[in-house]
Amino acid sequence: MRSSTPEPRFVKLSSATDPVTDELERSEHARLRRALAARATINMAEGALAVLGHLPIEEAGLVLADVARRLRVDAHLVAEHVLNLVQGIAVPDAVYGELHRVLDEYRPDGRDAGGGGGRARPRARPPPTPPNSRETPRRGC
Q1: pTM, whole model, 2 decimals?
Q2: Using CA of residue 66, residue 94, residue 76, residue 84, what is the dihedral sign?
Q3: d(CA 141, CA 57)
Protein backbone atom coordinates (compact mmCIF):
# COMPACT_ATOMS: atom_id res chain seq x y z
CA MET A 1 0.00 0.00 0.00
CA ARG A 2 1.35 3.41 -1.00
CA SER A 3 1.37 6.37 1.31
CA SER A 4 -0.61 9.46 0.49
CA THR A 5 2.48 11.67 0.44
CA PRO A 6 4.33 11.81 -2.87
CA GLU A 7 7.93 10.70 -3.18
CA PRO A 8 10.34 13.64 -3.24
CA ARG A 9 11.70 14.39 -6.69
CA PHE A 10 15.01 15.60 -5.38
CA VAL A 11 17.03 13.92 -2.72
CA LYS A 12 18.88 16.13 -0.30
CA LEU A 13 22.56 15.36 -0.70
CA SER A 14 23.73 16.51 2.68
CA SER A 15 22.96 15.51 6.18
CA ALA A 16 23.76 17.10 9.49
CA THR A 17 26.65 14.66 9.89
CA ASP A 18 28.37 15.33 6.56
CA PRO A 19 30.41 18.57 6.82
CA VAL A 20 32.18 18.08 3.47
CA THR A 21 28.92 17.93 1.52
CA ASP A 22 27.53 20.85 3.53
CA GLU A 23 30.57 22.95 2.59
CA LEU A 24 30.18 21.98 -1.09
CA GLU A 25 26.55 23.05 -1.01
CA ARG A 26 27.45 26.37 0.62
CA SER A 27 30.16 27.10 -1.94
CA GLU A 28 27.86 26.16 -4.83
CA HIS A 29 25.14 28.35 -3.36
CA ALA A 30 27.58 31.26 -3.05
CA ARG A 31 28.78 30.75 -6.65
CA LEU A 32 25.22 30.75 -7.96
CA ARG A 33 24.38 33.85 -5.90
CA ARG A 34 27.38 35.70 -7.39
CA ALA A 35 26.43 34.64 -10.92
CA LEU A 36 22.86 35.82 -10.42
CA ALA A 37 24.03 39.16 -9.02
CA ALA A 38 26.41 39.63 -11.97
CA ARG A 39 23.62 38.87 -14.45
CA ALA A 40 21.28 41.35 -12.71
CA THR A 41 23.99 44.03 -12.85
CA ILE A 42 24.49 43.39 -16.57
CA ASN A 43 20.74 43.60 -17.22
CA MET A 44 20.46 46.93 -15.39
CA ALA A 45 23.44 48.35 -17.26
CA GLU A 46 21.99 47.21 -20.59
CA GLY A 47 18.79 49.05 -19.75
CA ALA A 48 20.69 52.21 -18.83
CA LEU A 49 22.71 52.08 -22.05
CA ALA A 50 19.58 51.46 -24.11
CA VAL A 51 17.86 54.53 -22.67
CA LEU A 52 20.82 56.90 -22.49
CA GLY A 53 22.50 55.71 -25.68
CA HIS A 54 19.29 55.60 -27.73
CA LEU A 55 19.89 51.93 -28.60
CA PRO A 56 17.76 48.81 -28.79
CA ILE A 57 18.32 46.61 -25.73
CA GLU A 58 20.05 43.93 -27.82
CA GLU A 59 22.63 46.43 -29.05
CA ALA A 60 23.14 47.74 -25.52
CA GLY A 61 24.20 44.21 -24.57
CA LEU A 62 26.60 44.15 -27.50
CA VAL A 63 28.06 47.49 -26.39
CA LEU A 64 28.78 46.04 -22.94
CA ALA A 65 30.34 42.94 -24.44
CA ASP A 66 32.49 45.00 -26.85
CA VAL A 67 33.77 47.29 -24.10
CA ALA A 68 34.55 44.31 -21.88
CA ARG A 69 36.39 42.55 -24.71
CA ARG A 70 38.41 45.64 -25.64
CA LEU A 71 39.37 46.30 -22.01
CA ARG A 72 39.90 42.58 -21.33
CA VAL A 73 37.66 42.52 -18.26
CA ASP A 74 34.45 40.70 -17.37
CA ALA A 75 31.21 42.23 -18.64
CA HIS A 76 29.79 42.51 -15.14
CA LEU A 77 32.68 44.81 -14.15
CA VAL A 78 31.95 47.08 -17.11
CA ALA A 79 28.27 46.95 -16.13
CA GLU A 80 29.15 48.10 -12.61
CA HIS A 81 31.07 51.04 -14.08
CA VAL A 82 28.10 51.93 -16.30
CA LEU A 83 25.79 51.91 -13.29
CA ASN A 84 28.25 54.09 -11.38
CA LEU A 85 28.43 56.47 -14.33
CA VAL A 86 24.67 56.97 -14.49
CA GLN A 87 24.66 57.66 -10.74
CA GLY A 88 27.29 60.37 -11.14
CA ILE A 89 30.11 58.34 -9.59
CA ALA A 90 33.53 58.71 -11.22
CA VAL A 91 34.73 55.83 -13.40
CA PRO A 92 38.21 55.05 -14.73
CA ASP A 93 39.26 57.03 -17.81
CA ALA A 94 39.82 53.85 -19.82
CA VAL A 95 36.25 52.66 -19.23
CA TYR A 96 34.76 56.08 -19.91
CA GLY A 97 36.69 56.56 -23.15
CA GLU A 98 36.11 53.05 -24.46
CA LEU A 99 32.42 53.22 -23.63
CA HIS A 100 32.08 56.41 -25.69
CA ARG A 101 34.06 54.95 -28.59
CA VAL A 102 31.92 51.81 -28.69
CA LEU A 103 28.67 53.76 -28.30
CA ASP A 104 29.68 55.98 -31.21
CA GLU A 105 30.16 52.87 -33.34
CA TYR A 106 26.66 51.63 -32.59
CA ARG A 107 24.86 54.93 -33.01
CA PRO A 108 23.54 55.80 -36.46
CA ASP A 109 26.05 57.95 -38.38
CA GLY A 110 28.28 57.99 -35.30
CA ARG A 111 26.25 60.84 -33.77
CA ASP A 112 25.57 61.38 -30.09
CA ALA A 113 21.82 60.95 -30.38
CA GLY A 114 19.90 58.69 -32.64
CA GLY A 115 16.45 57.31 -33.01
CA GLY A 116 17.37 53.70 -33.55
CA GLY A 117 20.01 51.08 -33.86
CA GLY A 118 22.38 50.18 -36.56
CA ARG A 119 26.09 49.82 -36.37
CA ALA A 120 27.78 52.76 -38.05
CA ARG A 121 31.36 53.45 -38.99
CA PRO A 122 33.37 54.85 -36.07
CA ARG A 123 34.21 58.52 -36.10
CA ALA A 124 37.71 59.48 -37.18
CA ARG A 125 38.67 60.78 -33.75
CA PRO A 126 37.28 59.73 -30.33
CA PRO A 127 35.86 62.44 -28.08
CA PRO A 128 38.52 64.11 -25.90
CA THR A 129 38.83 62.96 -22.32
CA PRO A 130 39.57 65.74 -19.84
CA PRO A 131 42.55 65.24 -17.50
CA ASN A 132 42.02 64.48 -13.81
CA SER A 133 38.69 62.81 -14.50
CA ARG A 134 39.01 60.74 -11.34
CA GLU A 135 38.54 63.89 -9.30
CA THR A 136 35.42 65.05 -11.12
CA PRO A 137 32.56 62.60 -11.63
CA ARG A 138 31.27 62.08 -15.15
CA ARG A 139 27.64 62.71 -15.85
CA GLY A 140 25.70 60.85 -18.52
CA CYS A 141 26.88 58.85 -21.52
Answers
A1: 0.62
A2: negative
A3: 16
